[in-house]
Amino acid sequence: MLDPDKPVEVDLGFGRGEFILEMARNRPEVEFVGLEIRQYLIEKVRARLQEDPRANVHVLTANVKRHLSTLFDPGMLSRVYVHFPDPWTQRKRHHKRRMVDADLVSTLHTLLRPRGEVHLMTDKSDVGTEILALFEGHGGFENVCGAGQFCLGSTTGVHTREEMYYIGRGDPVFRLRFVRKADGED
Ligand SMILES: C[S@@+](CC[C@H](N)C(=O)[O-])C[C@H]1O[C@@H](n2cnc3c(N)ncnc32)[C@H](O)[C@@H]1O
C-alpha cells in the first residue's frame, strides 16, 4: 500500500484532516498516513479523497496509544505530527489518557529514522512543558528550537484547524520540533 521508495510521515489524531490533505498536496513525493480514533472523522476524509483523490494519503482508524507501535517497522518514519492531541486534559483524572507520555516518546524513537522529526503543538502551557521535558529527558532527541525552548512560529508552514482556532482567539500556541538523534550521536 505504501510506496517503499518514498518517505513516510504520520499525523497522530488528524481530526478533520485539513492538515494532512494540504501537506499531501504540497509534497506528492511523500507518503502521508493519518491515524485517528474516531471512525466518523476517517469517513469524512475518505469522502473528501473520493471527490479529490490523492494517492499519497492513507487514513486508518487506530488508537495511537495501543496501535502505533504495531503499524510501522523500526526506522520507517521520516516525520510524525502530534497536533493538539488532548482536548480533555484539564482534569487530573484524564492525565493518564494523554497521548504524549514516556511510552509514546520511546515508540517514536524506535519508529523514526535517524534525523527523523517530531512536530508537536498544544494550546496548554503545562502540557507543552511536560512534552518538552519528556523529549529532552529521553536523551535520544535534539530540540531543534533550542534546549528548553518552544518554537517561535509554525514548524511546518501549514496550519491545522485547531491551530487556526487558537490563533483566531489570540491565544498562545506552544510548538515543539525534535530530531531523532542517530545512534551514538550525543
Ligand atoms: C483537538 S483534535 C486536533 C485535530 C488536529 N490534529 C488539529 O490540530 O486540528 C484531537 C484529535 O486527536 C484524536 N485523538 C485523541 N486521542 C487519540 C488516540 N489515542 N488515538 C488516535 N486519535 C486520537 C481525537 O479524536 C481528535 O480528532
What does this structure look like?
The longest helix has 14 residues, at 125-138. This protein is globular. 34% of the residues are buried. The chain has helices at residues 18-26, 39-51, 64-71, 102-111, 125-138, 161-169; strands at 8-12, 31-36, 57-61, 77-83, 112-122, 141-143, 174-180. The chain has a single domain (8-180), classed as Vaccinia Virus protein VP39 (Rossmann fold), CATH 3.40.50. Strands 3-2-1-4-5-7-6 form a seven-stranded mixed sheet, with helices on both faces. It has 186 residues and is an alpha/beta fold. The structure holds S-adenosylmethionine. Residues 13-15, 35-38, 41, 62-65, 83-85, 87, 99, 160-163 line the site of S-adenosylmethionine.
How would you name the CATH homologous superfamily? Vaccinia Virus protein VP39
- The N- to C-terminal Cα distance equals 36 Å
Q: In CATH's first tier, which class applies?
A: Alpha Beta
Written as H for each helix and E for each strand, in order along the chain, the element string is: EHEHEHEHEHEHE
CA radius of gyration is 16 Å
Mean pLDDT: 94
Fold-level CATH name? Rossmann fold
What is the multimeric organization of the chains shown? single chain
The strand order across the widest sheet is 3-2-1-4-5-7-6
Low-confidence stretches: none
In total, how many beta strands? 7
| Helix percentage | 25-40%
Helix-strand layout with pairing:
Layout: E1 8-12, H1 18-26, E2 31-36, H2 39-51, E3 57-61, H3 64-71, E4 77-83, H4 102-111, E5 112-122, H5 125-138, E6 141-143, H6 161-169, E7 174-180
Parallel strand pairs: 1-2, 1-4, 2-3, 4-5
Antiparallel strand pairs: 5-7, 6-7
The chain binds S-adenosylmethionine (SAM).
